[in-house]
């Protein structure tokens, strides 16, 4: 893990008046670049040549760094290029997936927005569980072996692959049959109780500068084919066996019933407190708790994303919640840039970058 001192040293050579906000061209890059532009920063995108069109089209990047492969971001040449532009990189879901959390922790010496130590917690389901349970959050039961399966479970594979390859099983036999059909690496699976309810994904932002956890927005994932299956009447589906899959294809906006908000705030705030104990200074900036709400209005979280999630892309112009708090169009991307701006004004930038 690169030390904070190392990053501080890099930033000490930066021209802060020319600070550039950069990210990898994918996931929520457009929102991040727009937010940075709206806050008056220069912007930079690292992308492959087949993607430049998108970023050129929207005109949100002042600089383009073209790579053959995302992992080239780790090369000395590209990193030095970013340092020349005084870049702070904003990690997002694809950023972590493509570059790899270990590579980011150990090899990427360009300053990153947020605490690098969170990557090690986010990339392990067991560590996620430890964090969420310490925060008093209900989690679906985990089964250590297929023999223990005594209810409907979801079998998951590592990485943020958008639900690809997951399957459901009700017992060991069904588990084994379905595991056989899984293509690719199938050694590392997690067997998790399937919670039946509605999806609620609150997007939070922890601000070290304002010392508060903000509720930015919420979304529901739109998943194929499970969301399509609900459109076929039972009598037509009868006898026609289709296994549900949970591949994310989009995001749908959501507001929660207002009486759920106290719980939603409590969950986010507790996660921040626990993260500050487990890996000081804790989580910085955006995060999301992936929750299911059962009919008794209990919220269960089955995952945490400790960075900007793609569901925030719905709210380039802000969400009902961010509008209430900020009274201006405040996306999560813009909120990141605003935090950097506030920190610069108070000479506290080093509390945000690691
Ligand atoms: P994930 O990759 O963990 O975000 O899961 C992908 C999708 O699978 C989610 O968006 C949910 O629709 C569904 N899902 C994941 N875990 C559970 C669970 N424990 N119970 C019910 N549905 C789940």
Architecture blueprint of SSEs:
Elements: H1 4-12, E1 20-24, H2 29-38, E2 42-48, H3 52-58, E3 63-67, H4 76-84, E4 87-89, H5 93-99, H6 101-107, H7 117-122, H8 125-134, E5 142-143, E6 153-156, E7 167-169, H9 172-181, E8 190-193, E9 198-207, E10 212-225, H10 226-229, H11 234-237, E11 246-253, H12 261-278, E12 285-293, E13 299-305, H13 320-326, H14 332-345
Parallel strand pairs: 1-2, 1-4, 2-3
Antiparallel strand pairs: 5-8, 6-7, 6-8, 9-10, 9-12, 10-11, 12-13
Bound molecules: adenosine monophosphate (AMP).
Describe the protein's architecture and organization.
There is one protein chain. The protein has 354 residues and is of the alpha+beta class. The protein folds into three domains: 4-112, Rossmann fold, CATH 3.40.50.20; 125-137 and 196-343, D-amino Acid Aminotransferase, Chain A, domain 1 (2-Layer Sandwich), CATH 3.30.470; 142-193, 2-Layer Sandwich (Dna Ligase, domain 1), CATH 3.30.1490.20. The protein has 14 helices and 13 strands. It has helices at residues 4-12, 29-38, 52-58, 76-84, 93-99, 101-107, 117-122, 125-134, 172-181, 226-229, 234-237, 261-278, 320-326, 332-345, and strands at residues 20-24, 42-48, 63-67, 87-89, 142-143, 153-156, 167-169, 190-193, 198-207, 212-225, 246-253, 285-293, 299-305. The strands form three sheets. It has a five-stranded antiparallel β-sheet with strand order 11-10-9-12-13. A four-stranded parallel β-sheet has the order 3-2-1-4. β12 and β13 (299-305) form a beta hairpin. α2 crosses α14 (332-345). The termini are close together. The structure holds adenosine monophosphate. Adenosine monophosphate binds next to β6, β8, β10, β12 and β13.
């Amino acid at each position: 893990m690169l030390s904070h001192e190392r990053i501080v040293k890099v930033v000490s050579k930066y021209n802060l008046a020319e600070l550039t906000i950069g990210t990898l061209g994918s996931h929520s890059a457009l929102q991040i670049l727009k937010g940075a532009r709206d806050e008056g920063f220069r912007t930079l995108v690292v992308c492959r040549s087949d993607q430049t069109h998108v970023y050129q089209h929207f005109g949100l990047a002042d600089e383009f760094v073209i790579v053959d492969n995302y992992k080239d971001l780790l090369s000395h040449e590209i990193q030095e290029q970013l340092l020349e532009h005084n870049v702070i990189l904003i990690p997002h879901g694809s950023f972590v997936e493509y570059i790899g959390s270990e590579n980011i922790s150990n090899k990427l010496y360009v300053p990153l927005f947020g605490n690098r130590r969170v990557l090690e917690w986010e990339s392990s389901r067991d560590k996620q569980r430890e964090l969420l349970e310490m925060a008093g959050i209900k989690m679906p039961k985990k089964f250590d072996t297929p023999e223990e399966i005594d209810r409907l479970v979801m079998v998951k594979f590592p990485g943020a692959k958008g639900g690809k390859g997951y399957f459901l099983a009700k017992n060991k036999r069904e588990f084994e049959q379905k595991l056989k059909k899984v293509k690719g690496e199938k050694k590392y699976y997690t067997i998790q109780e399937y919670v039946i309810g509605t999806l609620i994904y609150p997007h939070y932002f922890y601000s070290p500068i304002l010392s508060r956890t903000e509720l930015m927005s919420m979304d529901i994932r739109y998943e194929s084919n499970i969301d399509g299956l609900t459109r076929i009447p039972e009598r037509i589906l009868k006898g026609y066996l289709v296994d549900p899959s949970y591949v994310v294809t989009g995001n749908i906006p959501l507001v929660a019933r207002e009486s759920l908000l106290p719980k939603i705030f409590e969950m986010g705030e507790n996660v921040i407190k626990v993260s500050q104990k487990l890996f000081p200074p804790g989580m910085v900036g955006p995060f999301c708790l992936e929750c299911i709400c059962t009919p008794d209005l209990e919220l269960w979280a089955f995952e945490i994303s400790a960075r900007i999630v793609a569901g925030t892309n719905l709210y380039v112009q802000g969400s009902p919640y961010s509008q209430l708090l900020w009274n201006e169009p405040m996306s999560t991307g813009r909120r990141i840039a605003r935090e950097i701006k506030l920190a610069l004004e108070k000479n506290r930038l080093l509390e945000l970058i690691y």
